[in-house]
Amino acid sequence: MTTEYVRLEVRRTLRDTGFALTSIGIPVMMYLLFTNLGGQDGAAWKATAMVGMAAYGALGAALSVGTGVAEDKSSGWLRQLRITPMTPRQVVTGRALTGSVVVLPAIVAVLLAGGLLNGVRLAPWQWAAVAGVLWLGSFPFALLGIGNGYRLTAQTTGVVNVACNLGLAVLGGLWFPVELFPDWLRSLSSYTPTNRFAELGVSVSGGHVPGTAALLVLAAWAALFGGYAAISYRRSARTA
C-alpha cells in the first residue's frame, strides 16, 4: 500500500509545472550564471559549484513535498488517508520517499549542465556516485518539508519552506564557498544539514569517501526532522 501511495504522489508532483520551473529550471540557470560570470571559470570551481547547485535543487524539490501536504490537508485528502489501513508512520514515510524520488530530476539536470555545458569531467562511477549520495542525502529535507506541511496552512507552508530553502542554502554554503564566511559563521555552517549534504557530493566528486562527521550530522538532522514530521502528522489528525 505504501508503494502505491508513493507512485501516486510522485506522478502528481512531477506533473506540476511550477515544480519543474522552481526545482529544476532555477538551479540550472543559477549554476550557469554563477560559473560563467565574473571570471569564475576554473574547472575545480565549476565542479564544486555543480555539486552545490545540484544539492540546492534537491533541497527545494524535497521541501516542496511539504507544500503538497498542506494543500492536501486543506482539500480533505489527508482525512481520506486516515480511514485507510495506512498507519501514521507509513503515511509520513510514503511522503518522505516521494520527496526522495522527485529530487532526482533536479539533481540530474544540474549534473547534465555541468558535464555538457560547463565541461566538468568526472569518471563514470563518480557521476553515478554524486547523484546517488545527493539523492540519499536529501531525505532529511523531505521530512522537514512534510513536518511544515502537516503543521501549517498551505499558504504559510509555502512561505516557511521558501525561508528554509534560502536560509539553509546560504548558511550551508550551497551558493557561496564557506571559505568566504567569517570564522564564526564557518563553524556554524559545519553543523547545518545542507553543508554536510553538499560535502557528500564534493567528497565523491573529488574521489574521496564521505567523512564520518558528515554522515553523523545528517543522521542526527534526519532523526530530528523525522520526529517533527511524525508529531506534526499526529497533531493535524487531532485538529482536522
List keywords for this structure.
240 residues, mainly alpha, 81% helix
Q: Would you write up a description of this structure?
A:
It is a single chain. α3 runs parallel beside α7 and α3 packs antiparallel against α8. With 240 residues, the protein is an all-alpha fold. It is globular. The longest helix has 33 residues. The protein is 81% helix and 0% strand. It has one domain.
| % residues in beta strands | under 5%
Rounded to the nearest angstrom, the radius of gyration is: 18 Å
Low-confidence stretches: none
Biggest beta sheet attributes: none
Class of secondary structure makeup: mainly alpha
Average predicted local confidence, pLDDT: 86
Please tally the β strands and state the result.
Answer: 0
**Tally of alpha and pi helices:** 11
> What is the count of distinct domains?
1
Rounded to the nearest angstrom, the distance between the terminal CA atoms is 23 Å
